[in-house]
Amino acid sequence: MSRFELTVWGARGSIPAPAAANQIYGSDTSCVELRCGDRLIFLDAGTGIVTAGRKLYEERVSDFDILFTHCHLDHIMGLPFLIPLYKDHVSARIFAGHFLDDTTTCQAMVEGFMCPPYFPVKPKQFAAKIDYRDFRPPQPLDLGDGILVKTFRLDHPNGAVGYRVEYDGRAICYITDTEHRPGTLDPALVEFIAGAEVMIYDSTYIDADFERFVGFGHSTWQQGVRLCRAAKVPQLLIYHHDVSRTDDWLEELAAEAAAEFPGAHVARTGLTIAV
Ligand SMILES: [Zn+2]
Ligand SMILES: [Zn+2]
What we know:
275 residues, alpha/beta, Metallo-beta-lactamase, Chain A, seven-stranded mixed β-sheet, 14 strands, 28% strand, globular, binds zinc ion
């Protein structure tokens, strides 16, 4: 079977969380790397992509794709610091899906936040060959080499896109940022993730305190478990941790979640799962 694996480069949501109490699970925001055979795909470009980029540069990787879920800062703020984008031997395709609702294109979004006075370097200073691509979920994306990406509209302020990356008979789903309705399972989302090997899921909150955060656009690890059970997904990656979650808190969560659902793992920077 071909190599198909994910590596977490940033598991935090909303804002980086550097602190002595967060050394194990990490402080960087949303970024997951997928390796599909020789191909490399980034899911989001939060601060976690900065470390990934240094490694890519050392490995002389010259071609990759980036799929944005949406353009809230925690998912894009690493992009200006992604070293390979400043190298002229590199080619990258950057996809974004939800902006079309307000006619903002992927390229306009990147130009909009990499712009003085917010940031001194403009994307035109990228030396890499960059192809910005827009789509509208549920439009599927054929990335070539047998990689098919299905897309799903999530429930989040300003919109967000969930991804199902299929390769060599297996699937990895990336479902963040999204809010659920307590007591219900979205049948369309269950169908979207059905039979995947692993789902990475927005677990910013827990069921016990969710009521306080209705309307914030996030979900709970317990909802992730319910979705995995309904969709027969054996592994859940608990992701997009709130800034207040320390290593101790997340260790306790890991034990509690594994007791509830043996395939549950808590995402931390550096975690790799092969499927
Ligand atoms: Zn987020
Ligand atoms: Zn968001």
